[in-house]
Amino acid sequence: MFRPNIKLSLHARRAKRDIFGAEFFSKPVPIQAGIVRLASLMEMSSVRADSTASRGAAEDMIAEAKILLPTSTRAKVGDVLEGYGVKIEVTGLHPRINTRGQLDHYELRGKIREDL
Question: Taking the chain, what is the end-to-end CA distance rounded to the nearest angstrom?
Answer without folding.
Answer: 33
